[in-house]
TrEMBL record:
Protein's UniProt name: Carboxylic ester hydrolase
GO molecular function per UniProt: carboxylic ester hydrolase activity
EC identifiers of the protein: 3.1.1.-
Domain Carboxylesterase type B residue range list: 22-337, 339-443
Domain of life per record: Eukaryota
Classification via InterPro entries: AB_hydrolase_fold, AChE-related_enzymes, CarbesteraseB, Carboxylesterase_B_AS, Carboxylesterase_B_CS
Pfam families tied to this protein: COesterase (PF00135)
Length: 522
């Protein structure tokens, strides 16, 4: 009911817009109506333009009823023009206050397109995948608004919703509930974008993925999932990648246990098979499942319970193994530095791909987290206001210092130039300055150069190598040394038994044969 009221309210607001600023395109599924939005800046950098905005375009069938806990299916055609002037509800997710009052709905597989001009052709495309730990977030979040990036850097930006929490990532470790449905949603969106982006002025042969946190991990998973390789050409991974320990559950028994715990919390009987559990869950109200998923989360103290898993289909093996064997999309990448990105960056470089790395160190005047004390330093997601140019937006209140304005222009220029050409230094300049001192050098071995994202834009080498060695090597070794030794003891006893009663016996027989042969020769 909330979603219905939301639609009616949005429709009332957009009636005049459709009449005066309507912009339409024809997709493979039907006509879509968006709107032209004026974008004006009276202070440098001066901007006086308009962009074409299409919100809430369906890319898959609603994953409801029998389609719950299944891969997404291609969206049906529509006969009447689709009203794409307002966001659709976010997917059901973890209940947190900062999500506001936006409606949630299981019918949530929609995407948004911001284009400089739908009448043009071959505009480079950037596809944003939002973060939120795979349990929250939405493409409708104002923090991911694409208008500044598009108006000031001449690219198309697309964002999408995907199923979250139990709806997107519940798994039993068998064919009944394989999980990764949220990743399959992203894959379906990428298919739709590849097929239809030309109608919005985009180049279907120049599509870059970029995402932050769980979105960065998602981008990483698409890099190792062959099903997605045909739908994009470059990738930017911000604060997350396929190696992030919170972004992949490698213990399928743990994932299965969480799935059956959710079933018990929602009233499904004990002792069910996987098929019976899925049947039971499909009879439950979406809000009940969301509440039960939150209950599962409350029982977990060290990891998020509903995240991607190694399902043998989308994620075919441990990402570390896939990277080591070269089983990943060969393309240029930008990687935000953190310790789990070290392995990814090195494998990409070793395999002959162009890699750019950065380290965001600027403590902003206005934090992404309003209640965060400044003494904690630069927090997770503090780079997002600079990626999306919050301080340049006429649609929100956000204050940049003069240094921060320049830093945001530099970061947007780097990222959009990379999307255009694969080189962050070439193609466009959004502030009228050539900035030769800010050239971003490639990450190479043994140079290991990366760009420091602060107003000075310094080049750095060996950043936090001691920290990363501790997290990537020392701590895993300590875990091995202090692990439950019963399994290792059993293995050792078995090997000793084989050595004592098999290997030694064979050795004695061989030695006796040797002595006999030696005696016969004398």
């Amino acid at each position: 009911m909330n979603a219905i009221r939301y639609y009616l309210f949005a429709f009332g607001l957009t009636t005049n817009i459709l009449a005066s600023n309507a912009q339409s395109v024809t997709t493979s599924n039907g006509v879509v109506f968006g709107q032209a939005v004026a974008f004006n800046r009276s202070s440098p950098p001066l901007v006086d333009t308009s962009i074409h905005e299409f919100l809430g375009v369906p890319y898959a069938k609603p994953p409801i009823g029998d389609l719950r806990f299944r891969k997404p299916e291609a969206v049906d055609d529509w006969s009447e023009p689709w009203n794409a002037t307002f966001f659709r509800p976010r997917c059901w997710q973890l209940a947190v206050e900062r999500n506001g009052t936006d409606p949630q709905d299981e019918d949530c597989l929609y995407l948004n397109v911001w284009s400089p001009d739908v009448t043009r052709q071959n505009i480079p495309v950037m596809v944003w995948i939002h973060g939120g730990g795979f349990v929250e977030g939405a493409s409708s979040d104002l923090n991911f608004d694409g208008k500044v990036l598009v108006a000031m850097n001449d690219v198309i930006m697309v964002s999408m919703n995907y199923r979250l929490n139990a709806f997107g990532f519940l798994a039993t470790g068998d064919d009944e509930l394989k999980g990764n449905y949220g990743l399959w949603d992203q894959n379906e969106a990428l298919k739709w974008i590849k097929q239809n982006i030309a109608a919005f002025g985009g180049d279907p042969n120049n599509i870059s993925l970029f995402g932050q946190s769980a979105g960065g991990a998602s981008v990483g998973h698409h890099l190792i999932a062959q099903q997605s390789w045909d739908y994009f050409h470059r990738a930017l991974l911000i604060s997350g990648n396929m190696m992030s320990p919170w972004g992949l559950e490698t213990d399928i028994a743990k994932a299965r246990s969480d799935a059956f715990l959710l079933g018990r919390l929602i009233g499904c009987a004990d002792g069910l098979t996987s098929a019976e559990l899925v049947t039971c869950l499909r009879t439950k109200d979406a809000k009940e499942i969301s509440a039960a998923a939150n209950g599962v989360l409350l029982t977990t103290t060290n990891v998020i319970p509903t995240v991607p898993v190694i399902d043998g289909e989308f994620i075919t093996a441990d990402p570390r193994l896939l990277l080591a064997n070269g089983n990943f999309k060969q393309c240029s990448v930008i990687v935000g530095i953190h310790c789990t990105s070290e392995h990814t960056s090195r494998e990409y470089t070793t395999n002959g791909n162009t890699v750019y790395r950065y380290f965001f160190t600027h403590l902003p005047k206005t934090s992404y987290w309003p209640s965060a004390p400044r003494w904690i330093g630069v927090a997770h997601a503090e780079d997002l206001p600079f990626v999306f140019g919050y301080g340049f937006s006429p649609f929100r209140e956000w204050e940049f210092t003069s240094d921060e304005e320049q830093l945001s222009l530099d970061i947007m220029r780097y990222f959009t130039n990379f999307a255009k050409t694969g080189d962050p230094n070439n193609s466009g300049d959004n502030d009228g300055n050539s900035d030769p001192e800010s050239e971003w050098k490639e990450f190479e071995i043994p140079g290991l150069v990366l760009k420091e994202f602060n107003p000075n834009l310094n080049d750095l080498t060996g950043v936090r190598a001691d920290h990363c060695r501790m997290w990537n090597h020392n701590i895993p070794s300590m875990v091995d040394y202090t692990d439950d030794l019963s399994e290792y003891e059993a293995q050792w006893r078995e090997e000793i038994t084989i050595w004592k009663y098999d290997d030694v016996t064979k050795w004695r027989l061989s030695f006796n044969d040797y002595q006999q042969n030696s005696d016969s020769c004398t």
